[in-house]
Amino acid sequence: MSQFWSDIVNTLTPYVPGEQPQNRDYVKLNTNENPFGPSEKVFHAIDNFDRNLLKRYPDPEATKLRQSIADYYQMDLNQVFVGNGSDEVLAHSFFAFFKKNKPIAFPDITYSFYPVYANLYNIEAREFAVKDDFSIDIQSITQDCDGIILPNPNAPTSRYLELDKIKELLTLHSNKVVIVDEAYIDFGGESAVSLVNEFENLLVIQTFSKSRSLAGLRIGFAIGQAHLIEALQRVKNSFNSYPIDQLAIVAGQAAMQDVAYFKSCCEQVIQTRQWTHKQLESLGFECIESKANFILAKPLKHDAEKVYLDLKENGVLVRYFKNSKISDYLRISIDTQDNMKKLIDALTVIL
Amino acid sequence: MSQFWSDIVNTLTPYVPGEQPQNRDYVKLNTNENPFGPSEKVFHAIDNFDRNLLKRYPDPEATKLRQSIADYYQMDLNQVFVGNGSDEVLAHSFFAFFKKNKPIAFPDITYSFYPVYANLYNIEAREFAVKDDFSIDIQSITQDCDGIILPNPNAPTSRYLELDKIKELLTLHSNKVVIVDEAYIDFGGESAVSLVNEFENLLVIQTFSKSRSLAGLRIGFAIGQAHLIEALQRVKNSFNSYPIDQLAIVAGQAAMQDVAYFKSCCEQVIQTRQWTHKQLESLGFECIESKANFILAKPLKHDAEKVYLDLKENGVLVRYFKNSKISDYLRISIDTQDNMKKLIDALTVIL
Fold first, then answer.
1. Which of A112, A181, A278, B120 could join A238 via S-S bond, C-beta 3.0 to 4.6 A?
2. A22 has pLDDT over 80
3. What CATH code is assigned to A40-258?
4. For A139, how many CA atoms within 13 A lie in the half-sphere containing its CB?
C-alpha cells in the first residue's frame, strides 16, 4: 500500500484469471477457450480492413457490430450494448444496476469475478447456497436484495437452468434487475434473450470469447430492453467513449454473421464433451452433467489438487480452485478430440 | 431514467467525443488524430500474427507491449501500466488516486472528460482558472485538494508548461498524486517521464491515438513509480483482466519500436502546424502558440460558431465548443499539408 492510494485500493482483492503460461506449450484445458480458431470470414474481415484507417478513432457506438448481434437475435439496435469483453460489460452492469441500498445476490459457487465487482463498487454481496448437487433452487433466493446475477449454465459447476426456471426467477423478482450471464449458453442451453421483450428487468450478457472463438479480441455484449441498455451507455460514455477497436468491430461482425461455422464448432464441442464425460467416468471421476464447454469432475479416489499438479507436470493444464467448496473437483475445458484424448491418456498414466 | 437504474446513473453527464460522421467524406480536423497512417511495421506485425490464436485470451499483463514502452523511455517494466485507450487509464487513475476526502483540482479549461470521471466516481472537482492568455499559473493551484490533473500541452488550449514548471508543481504538492496527461507531448514538448524516478507523486499518462497513429486500436499507458502502477493494476484486475487485445498488443509494440517513423510523422505535423498558424493569422485569426497537433484559433472579425458551421457545409470538420470560455475559438487539428490547404482555401471563400 501507499499513502497515495485511495482507501478503496487497499481493500481490493483482484480476480485471478486462469494461467496463461508463456514458457511451455501445454494442452491448455484451463480457460474454457474455443478449440477451434475463428471463422475464415473473420480473417477475411481483418485482411480487408483498410489499415490506414487505424489512425482514426473507431465508431464510438460500434454500430455495425451491435447491428450484427441485433440481427442474429432479431432484436432492435437499441437493445444491444457492447463492451471490451463481457467482463467490462459485467463491471458496468454492477455499477449501473446494483449500486443501490440493498445487497446484490449471487450463488455461493459461481464466477469468482462477481464478488470482485461488488467490492470494487462498494456493493454488499449476499450469496445464496447452491444445493449439494450444485443445482440452484430459485425459491431459495432472498427477496432482501436489489438485484440478482447468475451464470447460466453456472460456472464453474456447468449446471443449467431451463428457461421456465429463469421465467420463474424474473417473475419472483420483477422489481429488480436480474442478470443472466450466458457466457456458456451456446453449448447446449437455450438463451434467455427470447424473454427480453417480456421482462423489463432482464439483462442477458454474452461473450465472443467462448462459442465465437474470439477471446483474443475482447468482445462482450448485453441484451435487454432499451431502458437498461441506456443505463449501460451512460456509464460507458462516462468511462471510455471507444471501448471496441476497429479490428474487433469488423472481426466481431464477421464472427456473428458466420452462423454455420459457429454452429458446427459448438456441435463438435458438445460431442467431444459427451465422449470426455464417459471416459472420465470410466477412469473413476464423478462428472456433473454439463451444458457448457467444460466439465466439473471429481476424482473419487484421488486428491484433486494432486491430480491437477500431476497433469501440469505431464503438460496438461486444467483449472483447480483451492480453498473453495469445489476443491475436490477439477474444471476441465473441452478442447479438440485429439487434446481430450491426450488428457485421458495422461490421466490413465497418473491414476 | 428508470426505476432499475442505480441513483448515480441519473446524475451522469457523459462525455461527448468529436463527431465521427459516417455519411460524408469530410476533411476531418476535429479529433486530433494523426494524418499519417501507422508504421509499416504495424501492418507487418498484424499480418504476421497467427490469427488462429485469436481464440485464446491475450496475455493479461500485455507484457510485450509494456516492455516496448519501458524500453523507449528506459524505465522498468513495473513502472508501466497499459489500458484500453488513455481514457480507460484516466478513469482507473481517478478511481485509484482521487477517490479521497478532498476535491481534485484541474484547470477550468481542459479535457472535458475530467469532470465526467469525477462525477462517475463521486469525487468533488475543484477547477482553477487559467489566465486570460490560457496559460497556467502553478502558484494559483489550491493546496486544499487530494490530487491534481492537467494535460501538458493543455487541451484544447494547446498551452505548454516547461518541465521546470512541472517540477515546481510536483514539489509544491509532494503529498498528492499529480497526473500529467501528455496526450500531445510528442508534438514539440518535453515529457515529464524523465522526472518519474525523482518524484514519487508523479504519474504521466500518454496515448497511442495521436503521435503513434493508432487511435483505432485503443492503447493508452501510464508511467510512474511502482507503487502508483500497483494501484492501477489492482483496479484494472478488479475490472477487466484482459483490456488489451492480441492484435493491439503486437501492433502497439511495433508502433513503439519504429522510432524513426514516429519522429518523422511528428516533425511533419510540427512543420504543417507552423505553416497553418501563419496562414490563419493572415486570414484574421488570433492563434494560441501551440505545442500540440492542433491550433486553437479565434476568428477576430467573425462568429466562431458560424465559421464552424460554414466550414462543415464546405466539407471541413473542425471542433467548436459551445457554451464554454472558448466559444470564440475553433480547435483545428493539424492534418496533411494538402488538407490544411483545403481548410485555408475554404476559409478564404467563407470569410
1. B120
2. no
3. 3.40.640.10
4. 0
Q: Which triple of cell numbers denotes residue B46? A: 498484424
CB neighbour list of residue B139: distance below 8 Å, 6 or more residues apart: B172
Domain B7-37+260-350 is in which class? Answer: alpha beta
Facing residue for A4 by CB, picked from B91, B216, B227: B227
Confidence of residue A1 (pLDDT cuts 50, 70, 90): confident
Amino acid at A300: L
Tell me whether residues A251 and B117 touch, CB distance under 8 A.
no
DSSP bridge pairs for B330 = B297
Q: What is the mean pLDDT of residues A65-70?
A: 98
CB contact under 8 A, B4 and A200: yes
Residues forming beta bridges with residue A200, ordered by sequence position: none
Cis status of the peptide bond prior to A58, with omega within 30 of 0: no
Do residues B136 and B107 make contact, with C-beta atoms less than 8 angstroms apart? yes
Domain A7-37+260-350 identical in fold to domain A40-258: no
Please determine, for residue B20, whether its predicted confidence score (pLDDT) is greater than 80.
Answer: no
DSSP β-bridge partners for residue A149: A179
Tell me the per-residue pLDDT of A100-118, one tens digit each, with 9 for 90 and over.
Answer: 999 999 999 999 999 999 9
CA angle B68, B69, B75 (to 5 degrees): 110
The B residues from 101 to 140 touching A (CB cutoff 8 Å) are 116-117, 119-120
Q: Does B53 touch chain A (CB under 8 A)?
A: yes
Contacts of A191 (CB under 8 A, 6+ apart): A73, A182, A185, A204, A206
Reported pTM:
0.96
Is the pLDDT at A23 greater than 90? The verdict is no
Q: Is the Cβ of A14 closer than 8 Å to some Cβ of chain B?
A: yes
Beta-carbon separation of B96 and A201 below 8 A? no
Span B288-296, average pLDDT: 97
The DSSP code sequence of B176-233 is SEEEEE-TTGGGT---GGGGTTT-TTEEEEEESSSTTS-GGG--EEEEE-HHHHHHHH
CA distances from A53 to B33, B214, B318, B333 (A): 10, 9, 19, 17
Q: How far is it, in rounded angstroms, from Cα A62 to Cα A82?
A: 8
Q: Give the burial string for B148-176 (b: 16+ CB within 10 Å, else e).
A: bbbbbbbbbbbbbbeeeebbebbeebeeb
- In chain A, domain spans: 7-37+260-350, 40-258
In chain B, residues with a C-beta closer than 8 Å to the C-beta of A241 are 15, 17, 87
Residue A316: DSSP 8-state: E
Over residues A144-194, the pLDDT tens digits come to 999 999 999 999 999 999 999 999 999 999 999 999 999 999 999 999 999
pLDDT of residue A285: 98
Res. B323 pLDDT band, cuts 50 70 90: confident
Q: How far apart are CA A41 and CA A31, in angstroms?
A: 24
Residues of B in contact with A33 (CB under 8 A): 55-57
Helix H or strand E encompassing B339? helix B337-350
User: Please, which contacts does B273-279 make with residues 24 or more away whose CB atoms are closer than 8 Å?
Assistant: B273/B187, B273/B334, B275/B337, B275/B340, B276/B332, B276/B334, B276/B340, B276/B343, B276/B344, B279/B340, B279/B344
ipTM of the complex: 0.96
